[in-house]
Automatic annotation (TrEMBL):
One of its GO terms (cellular component) is cytoplasm. One of its GO terms (biological process) is response to water deprivation. GO terms for molecular function: aldehyde dehydrogenase (NAD+) activity. This is Aldehyde dehydrogenase. The keyword Oxidoreductase applies. The active site is at E214, C252. It catalyses: an aldehyde + NAD(+) + H2O = a carboxylate + NADH + 2 H(+). SUPFAM superfamilies: ALDH-like (SSF53720). Belongs to the aldehyde dehydrogenase family.
Amino acid sequence: MEEKDNNLERELLVMRECFRSGRTKEADWRRAQLKGLQVFLKENEVDIFKALKQDLGKHYVEAFRDEVGLLRKSLNLALSDLKKWMSSKEAKLPIMAVLSYAEVVPEPLGLVLVISTWNFPLALSLEPMIGAIAAGNAVVLKPSELAPAISSLLVNTLPNYLDNKVIKIIEGGPAIGEKLLQQKWDKIFFTGSGRVGRIIMSAAAKHLTPVTLELGGKCPAVLDSLSWSRDKEAALNRIIGAKYGSCAGQACISIDYLLVEKAYLPSVVELMKVMIKKMYGDNPKELHSVARIINKHHFLRLKNMLTDPMVQKSIIYGGSMDEDSLFIEPTILVDPPLESAIMTEEIFGPLLPIITLDNIEDSIDFINSKSKPLAIYAFTKNEKFRKRMLSETSSGSLVFNDAIIQFAADTLPFGGIGESGVGKYHGKFSFDTFSHYKAVARRSFLTDFWFRFPPWNNHKLEL
Ligand code: NAD
C-alpha cells in the first residue's frame, strides 16, 4: 500500500515537472489533445454506447443527446475559439502610471484533479477535462467507480489518444479519492454530492487549493396556470421529459418537485397521466429504452422514500418497482409531508412530488425557505411573476418555460450557488475555471509624477 502511495507521489512529481517544462502551454499541444478527445469519441462510439447501456441502461439516443453529442459540441467550440481564449487582453492603467502598457494574461493553473460522478459518467468526466486541457494544465481524472464500464473504457482506451506524460486517468472509489486528496493540487474540480463536496473543500484548504464544486440539491419547477391548452401541454411535456427522461431522473438539474396552484391541480394531474402513458406505455418496465437506477443502494434509497407510510398515500400515479432490473416506474405524488425524506433530501430518481399552494406566487417563499438550488424552472406567461422570480430568488440557473436545456448551452455558465455548488464551467467558462488571469503591467522609464514619492510639499493637487 505504502509503495502504491509512493508511486502516486512519484507520478505526480513527474507530471508537475513536465508541466513546468512548458509542455502543456503551447497551443499546438492543447489542440492535439482536444483532437485526441475527438478521435476517441469517434472511434469508440459503439463501445461508449455499450458501456452507457451497461452502466445505466441508457438508450443510445439519450446517450448521444446528453453525453457524446454535447462533448462533440464542446470540443468543436474549444478548438475553434482556443486562439481567442488564449489571447491576452489589453488593459488601461491609471494616469499615475503614465507611459505604460498593461494586459491580462491567462495562464494555466498547473496540475489539476478532476473527480467525476456516475450519472453522466462520460460527459461529466470529459467536459471539465476539455476546459483543463484548453487552459493548458496537466490533468488527473478520477471517474466514478459506480459506472464501471465507462470508468474502465476511460482508463484503458482514452490514454491511447492523449499525452500520458501529463494526462492520467486513475480508476477507483472513495479510498483512491481520499489518497488523491492528500496530494497537493493547483485546482480540484469535483462533481458529486454535497457530503463529499465538504470533504473535498476541507482537504483543499490544507494547501489553499481552489475548488470548483458541482453539487446537487432539490431543483423546483413552478407551474403557473397556463390558460392556453397548447401551452399547458407543451409545459407538461417538458416537465415530464425533464423529470423522467434524463437518466430516469438521476440528473443534478432534473426537476425534483413541482409547485402548482391547488385549483389547477386536477387538470394538471389528469393531463400528466395521459402524457406519461403516451410516452411510457402501459408496461414501462418492458421499455428497454428507459434508463435504470444505477445500483441496488440507490434503488433501496428511493424505495425507502416511497414506501414511507406517510408518503405512500400521496402516490397518485405509478409507484411500481422491480429490484431485479433496478426499474422504478415514473411516479407522481401529491402533497407528501414536507418533513418526509422525499421532500427534505434530493430525490435523484423518477419520483415527482407535486406540492400544492393557494397562490402560485407563494412558490417564491417556498423556494426561499430552502437552500439555494442548482436550477429553478418556472412555467409562466405572467410578466410580473417572471420578474419577481428573477429578482427574488437565487439559484445556479433560472429557466422559464423549459428545463434542463441550460446544460447544453456553452454560452451560459453552469454551476451552483450556496449548497448547490461553487464555481462554474462550460464553454469559455471552463477555460476560465482552469486559468489564472495574471495582471501584467510594463512602464517606460521616461517620467514620473512628483506626488508618487516623498517628501511631499504643498503643491495643489488637481487630478
Ligand atoms: P459522490 O459524492 O458519492 O461521489 C462523487 C465522486 O466522489 C466519485 O468519483 C467518488 O468515487 C468520489 N468520492 C466519494 N467519496 C470520496 C471521498 N471520501 N474522497 C474523495 N472522493 C470521494 O456522488 P454521488 O452521490 O454518487 O453523485 C450524486 C450527486 O452528484 C447528486 O447530489 C447530484 O446532484 C450531484 N451531481 C451534480 C452535478 C453537477 O453538475 N452539479 C452533476 C451530476 C451529479
